[in-house]
Design goal:
By secondary structure, this protein is an alpha+beta fold. The protein has two helices and seven strands. Strand 2 and strand 3 form a beta hairpin.
């Protein structure tokens, strides 16, 4: 039996990934992300971020896969890959499980606070970044 054109179109549409959402550009370049998945409870989101540097580099585009936890208000890098101008992969690094580190997200201008507000609209407000410790020289005797 030949599948109907309508069922084929439905399958194609269902297989399309989530569209890219462009983030505000900054002095480092441009970035966009798309959601890969989220868990059943809705707390954890996996996303891929595509970055393009504003200054020339050895690579033209970088793609980072992150895991964002709404409850913990953290973001973890899972993998990184670099692409050349033709879109050919130059390097790929998957961060081993024992080397992954969940980094806290803070309420400050930038990528992570924008991601948090987009992907965790019901989440608790982000904390303000604590001040860096002050180094106080001690007098020599």
């Amino acid at each position: 039996m030949i599948p109907s054109l309508l069922s084929i179109l439905f399958l194609i549409q269902a297989a399309e990934p989530t569209p890219w959402k462009v983030l505000p550009a900054d002095e480092d370049g441009t970035a966009a992300y798309r959601l890969l998945d989220q868990n059943e409870a809705g707390d954890t989101r996996r996303l891929v971020m595509r970055v393009t540097p504003s200054q020339p580099r050895d690579w033209t585009t970088g793609e980072l896969v992150y895991e964002l936890s709404c409850r913990a208000r953290t973001i973890t890098i899972l993998s990184v890959r670099s692409l050349d101008a033709e879109g050919v992969e130059m390097q790929f690094v998957a961060v081993p499980d024992d080397r992954r580190r969940a980094e806290p997200m803070y309420a400050e201008p930038g990528m992570t606070s924008t991601l948090y507000s987009d992907l965790c609209p019901q989440g608790a407000p982000l904390d303000v970044r604590p001040p860096l410790p002050q180094i106080v020289p001690t007098p020599r005797r």
